[in-house]
Specification:
The protein is an alpha+beta fold and about 150 residues long. Helix content is about 30%, strand content about 20%. The protein has helices at about 35-50, 85-95, 115-120, 140-145, and strands at about 20-30, 60, 65-70, 75-80, 100-105, 130-140, 150. It has a five-stranded mixed beta sheet with strand order 5-6-1-4-7, with helices on both faces. It has a two-stranded antiparallel sheet with strand order 2-3. Strand 2 (about 60) and strand 3 form a beta hairpin. The longest helix is centred in the N-terminal third of the chain and has 18 residues, at about 35-50. The radius of gyration is 18 Å and the shape is globular.
Length: about 150
């Protein structure tokens, strides 16, 4: 698809590949069902745009002028690991104070945001049964948090 650039945007010859200095990543526990992986990923990344508004781009508009919501300005990389990998990554993200979101196994049994927050609040940090973790920050820092995890197939 060779769409013409919008007014003021560079043409194809002037575009260069973008390499972001930051990374958005989700780490999922490998034993989740497919529907759980999708659900957990959606919940986790929803929090990052509020904590780090710079990750959200501009709104979209189609050729007929119909507006659409903005989305992340960069890819979201999805990783997987076992329970120990998640626990280690969680300790690392806390030590680095990076923006993060967690999803625990308890959240599969709740029905709304209030109950979700209460379920997380009821468990001490070291005892959280993590099934997912989202993190945003400088590439190198995120890479260190995710060390030992593998890209999701």
């Amino acid at each position: 698809m060779n769409a013409e650039p919008l007014p003021g945007e560079p043409g194809p010859a002037e575009r260069t590949p973008v390499r972001f200095d930051t990374k958005i990543a989700v780490l999922l526990r490998a034993d989740l069902e497919s529907w759980q992986r999708l659900n957990v990923t959606a919940f986790l990344v929803s929090g990052l745009g509020t904590a780090a508004p710079e990750v959200v781009g501009e709104p979209y508009e189609d050729g007929d002028g119909v507006p659409y919501l903005p989305m992340f300005r960069q890819p979201v990389l999805v990783f997987e690991g076992d329970k120990e990998t998640l626990s280690t990554a969680h300790a690392r993200v806390l030590a680095r104070s990076l923006p993060r979101a967690v999803f625990t196994s308890d959240l599969f049994a709740t029905g709304d945001d209030r109950d979700n927050r209460a379920a997380v609040r009821a468990v001490p940090t070291a005892e959280l049964d993590l099934v997912g973790l989202a993190v945003y920050g400088p590439r190198n820092a995120v890479d260190k948090v995710l060390k030992g995890a593998r890209m999701h197939p």
